[in-house]
Amino acid sequence: MAMFILRRVGVMILTALCLTFIVFFLTNLYPNLEKLAKTQGDFRMSDEEVASYLGRNGYLQPMAVKYGQWLGVVPGFVIEDRDGVTRGQCIEAGTAPEDAPRFCGILQGDWGYSTVFREDVGKILNDKLALTGKLMFWVMVLMVPSALILGILAGMREGSRTDRTLSTIAITTTATPEYVSGVLFIAVFASTAVGLKWFKGTATAAMDGANFENFFLPVLTIALYGMGYIARMTRASMAEVMTAQYIRTARLKGVSFPNVVMKHALRNALIAPFTVIMLQFPWLLNGVVIVETLFNYKGFGWTLVQAAGNNDIELLLGVSVISVVVVLVTQLISDIGYVYLNPRISVR
Predict the structure, then answer these.
(1) What is the C-alpha to C-alpha distance for residues 301 and 218, in angstroms, rounded to an integer?
(2) Does residue 284 form part of some domain?
């Protein structure tokens, strides 16, 4: 198991480097850099002024060098401008060049500075991840048990009326996009048009203090969309397990149907759904953009939209790093859990 994990970690690191380099390359194309210069300076800047701005801030270096500096494995750039002032990646205001550290990338904890929010990227990501983490927690609390119960009940007796009813519900929830269900929930339960003002139509107040009134609708909107997919996977896996030979043998021996389900079928039936459940974490991190925007909940997904829409390069790179890490870590946990649930899989 230890060698299996080490191999997987090695592959994860290589994958993370490749993916982050692709994002870094795309965000540092010259049109994006030119837009950044004009946004921070003046939209009427000439080409020479744009090139001067980019040169002073180290954007015109070779792509591989800039990527290494951003990671923190290559010494940061140091440039002396026309006025004799020394500028550099690691030189902060009031710090003498000789006292500045040589390396100051993400490996050293320096995520850069957001040109839109005017804050350190690390602080922004920390705050927004906390908000989205709170949303993810309550979505998983509602979504996973409900989906497993629906899937198990449907798969226990394949083809029955209960199976058809629950399968229809699961397909309907998955086929309804979040922006449709979210708008419907707001119109029915939060607007004055219908009169059922049970909940708040916005989750902005939930950022400071979440409660049932201001947080339930966004949680329900996300949970319903993901619940149907997990329920369908659980139902298919449960139906397959219930037709296995060892289940028939247990029934012939007189084991009660509830015991057959709980003691013999359930563990094997949860192998496929476990993988699907783990895949919900990266989806919840980046896939809740619509819901966070719809309910004005300024979490990680909302930050991604703001960074991309405003050409905030440093923040966009920070968001990409977090996204890549979450995807790879959940994949690793999923693989380990899959091996644990299915002893027939060898990791040698």
Answers:
(1) 13
(2) yes
